[in-house]
Amino acid sequence: MQTLRASKCGLSTSKLSPAILEIIDSLSKAGYDAYIVGGGVRDLMLGENPKDFDAVTNATPAQIKQVFGRRCRIIGRRFELAHVHSGRELIEVATFRAPPKKAVTSASGMILRDNNWGSIEQDFSRRDFSINAMYYQPRQGIVLDFCEAFQDIQQKKLRLLGDPKQRFEEDPVRMLRTLRFAAKLGFQIDQGILDIFTPECTQLLREVSPHRLYDESQKMFSMGKLTQLLPLLIQFHIWQQLLADLKPKITPLMQRAAENTDKRIAQGKSINSAFFYAVLLWQPYLERMEFYRSKGVIDAEARAQASIDVLKRQATRTIIPRFAETFIREVWEMQTRLIAPKAQHIMQLVNHARFRAGFDFLLLREQSGDAATQNMGAWWEQFQELNNDQKEKAIADYRRQQQRSRKKTTEQSAEPFVPLVLETEVNSRAARRAKQKALVKQQRAEIIDKVPVSMQQGQGISPDHPILKRRRVQRDLSHVVFGPTQ
Predict the structure, then answer these.
(1) For the chain, N or C: smaller number of CB within 10 Å?
(2) Looking at the annotation, which residues are catalytic?
(3) Average pLDDT, stretch 233-245?
(4) pTM exceeding the 0.85 threshold for the entire prediction
(5) What is the pLDDT of residue 93?
(6) CATH class for domain 1-155?
């Protein structure tokens, strides 16, 4: 162990939040040893701003509860921790841990219980990565380094403490943390880790709770380094363990969404991690929807059933909370409504609670080369920049365009009309007379054909016979009175 000066490591109390200082001071005042440990210390040494700070002490969770009273809540069964509220911040306070007296592990070696308290030296040996095993005492201005962690930070090296195979068996989630730190910090993974990071090793993740895997995936999706992380998930065979029925391939939509997410985080904007799940599961959703359509299911039911199937299948790997599932389904459903909206529903769609998320998803699809969007992403983008009068005009133009498109589609789909008798239009009086004479001649020929041959020969009926020259006059029956009359 070596004791380093905090100032030499680039650490100072001015860079700490008042909340973590208040926690350290309260525990020290109560007679306990307290240090800042973990990613907060590491990030400060790298010149970054930590999201939060974790504290560690030799006080048990029950003793921590006595110090902070109602501000403290003890959580966890596998790893018992204390959550302490200080102002608006929540600080996680852990107790020094010792190796278990009797190992409570699964068949593969995963630790199921770890609530044995010990000293700071024993606690150091239980930590996973060297860069997370430095103990910073801000009031004394010292850093305790048990494993040359400061040197690993300077060399940008990611190294596990102890035997990597055993550490992964104790907690398979450390595989995900390895890739997360490698992508976030740009560190090189130690060769000892690379030697055992095999597809067989990643099967250990199947023993981890799907709820915990979802929480870990949220940390990966929201760290602002998705572009660097996705190739690592494929390279180290983690993709298949996190995503069900999804081929290990980064589609243009995933790449565009990852870049957009990283950009928003860099600008300090908020993100919804469930949105990236909607992107990842989009292709399985389309495939499942086509399956139901091929069975003759109508579009609305096919979309609804496809979303249920895909999310239920994904729950075998990472259980997405109910509110996040609802968000994903609504984003998918908005795609159909935004691509082919009814003119009278456009303003309602703009005011919809999921319009912004659905529009962002549609625009990402369009920018990634999806022709099914029909350029409606650009239309909605321009529509939002218009004032009220311009919006009314845009809706009217869209309605006319929709009517023309519908009419054109009807004409193209209808079969051409073929008249049974082709007739030329008769305009002149002479042509009408000639047509009438031809009709009379045809009628006479039909009558002769109906008269028996013997009758024609006996009486000498010829085409010039008076009976055939007689013209039949159509009587007006409206002036005829039928029945008895007075």
Answers:
(1) C
(2) 52, 54, 128
(3) 90
(4) no
(5) 93
(6) alpha beta
